[in-house]
Write a structure and sequence with these properties.
It is globular, with a radius of gyration of 23 Å. Helix 6 links the parallel strand 2 and strand 3. Helix content is 52%, strand content 12%. It is built from 16 helices and ten strands. The strands form two sheets. Strands 1-2-3-5-7-10 form a six-stranded mixed beta sheet, sandwiched between helices. A four-stranded mixed beta sheet has the order 4-6-8-9. The chain is an alpha/beta fold and 367 residues long.
Length: 367
């Protein structure tokens, strides 16, 4: 066999393998055996397929993949029949990265709206704020500052804003612990906490409706950012948690105040004191999220909510939000900030953070 023949045979083998991988991944998804993100991660980590089949298909273009499968079925048999979900995505214009959405969504920021950690994309009266600090979208001082800048641009100007992640692995894993260790608690630490609270209270008081589109991990500050939104929609593979207790500190962006208002005092105390995460369906059951949908439908669902909410009367929206949030939240946040400062300055906090960074178990002493 000639070198050209060998190359051709290799190309054919690779094509068959790639097409079969996307077919099987789609069938697992259609049969509800696993969520899209879990299938993707499983294929990458378990089978060594990089990128995963869904991302690979999105990169190629789902219409291109569909055409290839139709040719493959004619040549190689029914095992290459295009899955129903692929046909539906193509029919709905979800063609992958080139269209902004396929199996996963992809940011298409407006011109001049690509900050280092946050992107803004507008679609009519709806905006999408993309958290873009992979892989964890941790709430660093820079990200919070850029969120503030962006929010001032859209507050009251867009009717609805969706907060989403630019990657499939994390919505936001919380505060940047390494950055926290560099801050003086009474100065930079206080300024960061004050900035985060000001941003989130501004979101709650605005006539712009906010939706957290939680595709994956929302821990600590990430969960608190989601709670500051008017609505929380979750992918099936999403998880929520307030793990600060494990570092010897307390939630610093409203977790002691908003969480009990959403899930009740007992559940909030459990989440804040035990620190264990809960899955999307538990979050739905206790009232932390408004709806749970399959991973690949999360962004479309979030946009449907946003478009409907954008049609509501802005003054009425603002007043409903204002009176619904009436109470002692501001007083509670003041108390939380004082509690956070006390906990953060403790020896236990230094031990907890040091243990986290050193990947060891902490030994708390109560000092």
């Amino acid at each position: 066999m000639s070198t050209a023949d060998n190359a051709g045979a290799t190309d054919t083998l690779v094509e068959r393998f790639s097409l079969k991988a996307i077919v099987e991944a789609c069938l697992v998804l259609e049969e509800d055996e696993a969520a899209a993100k879990d299938i993707e991660i499983g294929m990458m980590m378990g089978a060594g397929i990089l990128p995963g089949p869904f991302t690979r298909a999105d990169d190629q273009g789902l219409d291109t993949v569909l055409e290839a499968l139709e040719r493959a079925q004619a040549e190689w048999g029914e095992g290459f029949e295009a899955p129903l979900i692929l046909r539906r995505l193509v029919a709905g214009g979800r063609l992958g990265r080139k269209s902004g959405q396929g199996f996963f969504p992809y940011p298409q920021p407006d011109e001049g709206q690509s900050r280092e950690t946050v992107l803004l994309e507008t679609r009519g009266e709806v905006g999408i704020v993309w958290l873009n600090r992979p892989p964890t979208n941790s709430l660093s001082p820079q990200l919070i500052q850029e969120l503030w800048e962006l929010w001032h641009e859209v507050d009251g100007k867009l009717r609805a804003v969706v907060f989403a992640s630019s990657n499939i692995f994390t919505f936001s894993a919380g505060a940047d612990i390494k950055e926290f260790t560099k801050m003086a608690p009474e100065k930079e630490g206080k300024e960061l906490i004050d900035a985060g609270h000001s941003l989130m209270r501004s979101m709650e008081r605005s006539s712009t409706v906010t939706i957290a589109s939680v595709n994956s991990i929302a821990f600590g500050g990430g969960c608190e950012l989601a709670m500051a939104c008017d609505f929380r929609l979750a992918a099936e593979s999403a998880t929520f948690g307030q793990p600060e207790i494990n570092l010897g500190i307390i939630p610093g962006f409203g977790g002691t105040q908003r969480l009990p208002r959403l899930v009740g005092e007992a559940k909030a105390l459990e989440m804040n004191l035990v620190g264990d995460p809960i899955d999307a369906y538990e979050a739905l059951r206790v009232g932390l999220v408004n709806q749970v949908v399959p991973d690949h439908e999360l962004f479309d669902t979030s946009m449907r909510w946003a478009r409907k909410l954008a049609r509501q009367a802005p003054i009425a929206v603002e007043q409903i939000k204002r009176v619904s949030a009436a109470g002692d939240l501001d007083e509670g946040i003041v108390a939380e900030k004082q509690g956070f400062a006390t906990a953060f300055a403790s020896e236990d906090a230094k031990e907890g953070i040091g243990a986290f960074l050193g990947k060891r178990q902490p030994k708390f002493t109560g000092r």
